[in-house]
Automatic annotation (TrEMBL):
Its cofactor is pyridoxal 5'-phosphate. The lineage of its organism: Eukaryota, Viridiplantae, Streptophyta, Embryophyta, Tracheophyta. GO terms for biological process: biotin biosynthetic process; sphingolipid metabolic process. This is serine C-palmitoyltransferase. It is found in: Endoplasmic reticulum membrane. It comes from Spirodela intermedia. It holds the Pfam family Aminotran_1_2.
Length: 449
C-alpha cells in the first residue's frame, strides 16, 4: 500500500501535468536582484543580543486616546497603557536588526522585489520548499484553493463527482482564514467538509471511520488563538496513521515561539515528518508581514501555479482550467532577519514561557501558552472587565460574538518577551478585581462601573 505522502504526491503530479502541460513552471525563473554591495546588503550585519534592550518596550508602553476626557490644546487627551493585547510574542518588530534590515533594503531597492524567505522558512520547518504569500490569511486560502485543484483536475468531468471530492475535517475553532478557504472549496463543489468538536479526537475518529472517501484531509490550528490551548498533536498523528489522511496545521501562533529552534509545534514533539503541510504567518512572532506554506516541492509547484491568493496585485478572473502561472509576490528582507534573530536569541522564547509560568503560579489559571483566555461570560461582563483594565492602565480588549459564543465572552491576554515579572504581578492584581476565579466575581466590578 502506498504511503500517505506518495498517494497525495501522485495526485499533485497529475494536476501539474494537466494545468502545466508545457512544463512551464519548471522553467519559470525566480526574479533575483543584483547582488548588493556590503554597505547595501540588508543581511550583512545582523546584530543579536544576550538580553532585552530598551527597544523591546517600544510597542508595550503605549499611549491611547481617551475619548471621555476633555481635549488638551485642541488635541485628544491621552493615557499611558501597558499593552497586553498584541501578538508580537518575541518583540522582533522593534528589534534593531529587523529595523536596520528594512531600512537598508528600502534605501537600496525601494519598494520593488524583495529578498525571499522561502528557503530559510522551509529549512526551519524541515520541508523541501516554501511559498511566501502577502499575508497569513492568504496562505491558508492559497493552500486550500490548490487543494481544491487536486479534486477538480483529477475529476473525470468538469466538476468532481461525489466520490472524487476531498473529505476535509476541520476543528470547530479553526481560524477564519481556514473556514473561508473551506467555504471556497465547497462553493466549487471540490470538498465535503466535516467539523469536529474542538480537539475531540473520539469525534474525529468516528467521522473519519464513517467517511467513504479515499482522499481525506485533517486541518487544524496548532495553537488556538481565542482559547490559548494546543491541538492534541500526538493523538492526531496516531489518527493519521490509522486513517491515512493529509495532515495540515496552521502554525500562526507557534512558529518562532515553540521548539528549541523556533520550528513550531512539530519541532516540540519531533513529528515534522508526520505533518504534511505547514501554514504560517510572519506577522505575529515573526514581527513583520507575510504568510507562508511549507511543504514538498511538488505541493509548492502546485500552490505557486494554481493558487490565486499568492498573486499580487489581484488578477482578473480566469477559467478554472487555465490558472495564472506567474508568482509575483515575495517577502520583506526583515522576514529572513527575524528568523535569524529568533534562532540566535533563544532567550526570547524562554522569557515568554517564564511569564506564562509566573502567571499560572500567581493565579492557578491553567495557562499553557502565551495566549491567556479568561472567560467572564456575557458580552456586558466582558466589556465591563475590559473597561476596568483600561482604567487600571492595561490595554486588553473584550472578545465578543461572533469571534466567540455569546455566553463565552472573554478577555484575551497575550504575554511577550518584553513583559517583566513586575508587569505580570501588576496585571494579575488588576485582573483579580474583574475576572471570576482569580478573585472577585465579575458582577461586582460590573455593578461598581
Amino acid at each position: 500500500m502506498a504511503s500517505i505522502e506518495a498517494m497525495w504526491e501522485e495526485l499533485v503530479v497529475r494536476v501539474l501535468a494537466r494545468v502545466d502541460k508545457k512544463d512551464f513552471l519548471r522553467y519559470l525563473p525566480r526574479v533575483c536582484l543584483a547582488k548588493p554591495s556590503a554597505e547595501e546588503d540588508p543581511l550583512a550585519d545582523v546584530e543579536t543580543f544576550d538580553g532585552p534592550g530598551p527597544w523591546d518596550r517600544t510597542l508595550l508602553e503605549v499611549e491611547v486616546e481617551d475619548p471621555t476626557a476633555p481635549a488638551v490644546d485642541g488635541e485628544p487627551a491621552r493615557n499611558r497603557m501597558l499593552l497586553f493585547s498584541a501578538n508580537d510574542y518575541l518583540n522582533l518588530s522593534t528589534h534593531p536588526a529587523v529595523r536596520k534590515a528594512s531600512a537598508k533594503a528600502a534605501l537600496a531597492f525601494g519598494m520593488g522585489p524583495r529578498s525571499s524567505a522561502m528557503n530559510v522558512l522551509a529549512e526551519m520547518h524541515k520541508k523541501e520548499a516554501c511559498v511566501v504569500t502577502p499575508t497569513g490569511f492568504a496562505a491558508n486560502t492559497a493552500f486550500l484553493s490548490a487543494l481544491g485543484g487536486v479534486a477538480t483536475h483529477n475529476a473525470a468531468s468538469r466538476r468532481p463527482a461525489a466520490h472524487e471530492k476531498i473529505a476535509v475535517f476541520s476543528d470547530a475553532l479553526n481560524h477564519a482564514s481556514i473556514i473561508d478557504g473551506l467555504r471556497m472549496m465547497e462553493r466549487h463543489q471540490q470538498a465535503v467538509v466535516s467539523v469536529y468538536r474542538h480537539s475531540d479526537m473520539q469525534h474525529l475518529d468516528e467521522l473519519l471511520s464513517n467517511c467513504p472517501f479515499e482522499r481525506k484531509v485533517v486541518i487544524t490550528d496548532s495553537l488556538f488563538s481565542m482559547e490559548g490551548d494546543f491541538a492534541p498533536m500526538l493523538d492526531l498523528v496516531q489518527l493519521r496513521k490509522k486513517h491515512r489522511f493529509l495532515f495540515v496545521i496552521d502554525e500562526a501562533h507557534t512558529a518562532f515561539v515553540c521548539g528549541r529552534n523556533g520550528g513550531g509545534i512539530g519541532e516540540v514533539y519531533g513529528i515534522e515528518d508526520q505533518i504534511d503541510i505547514i501554514v504560517g504567518t510572519l506577522s505575529k512572532a515573526g514581527g513583520c508581514l507575510g504568510g507562508f506554506v511549507a511543504c514538498s516541492q511538488k505541493w509548492s509547484d502546485l500552490v505557486r501555479g494554481w493558487a490565486a491568493p499568492t498573486f499580487s496585485p489581484p488578477l482578473p478572473r480566469y477559467p478554472s482550467s487555465r490558472p495564472p502561472t506567474v508568482l509575483i509576490t515575495a517577502s520583506f528582507p526583515s522576514a529572513t532577519t527575524a528568523v535569524t534573530v529568533a534562532r540566535k536569541e533563544g532567550w526570547r522564547r524562554q522569557a515568554v514561557w517564564n511569564r506564562v509560568q509566573e502567571f499560572a503560579a500567581m493565579t492557578k489559571h491553567p495557562a499553557t501558552s502565551p495566549i491567556l483566555s479568561l472567560v467572564v461570560g456575557s458580552e456586558d461582563a466582558a466589556i465591563y472587565a475590559s473597561k476596568h483594565m483600561l482604567e487600571r492602565g492595561f490595554h486588553i480588549i473584550a472578545i465578543r460574538p461572533p469571534a466567540v459564543a455569546p455566553n463565552a465572552c472573554r478577555l484575551r491576554v497575550t504575554l511577550t518577551t518584553a513583559h517583566t515579572s513586575e508587569d505580570v504581578k501588576r496585571l494579575v492584581s488588576a485582573l483579580s478585581e474583574c475576572v471570576p476565579g482569580l478573585n472577585r466575581p465579575v458582577d461586582q466590578i460590573a455593578a461598581r462601573l
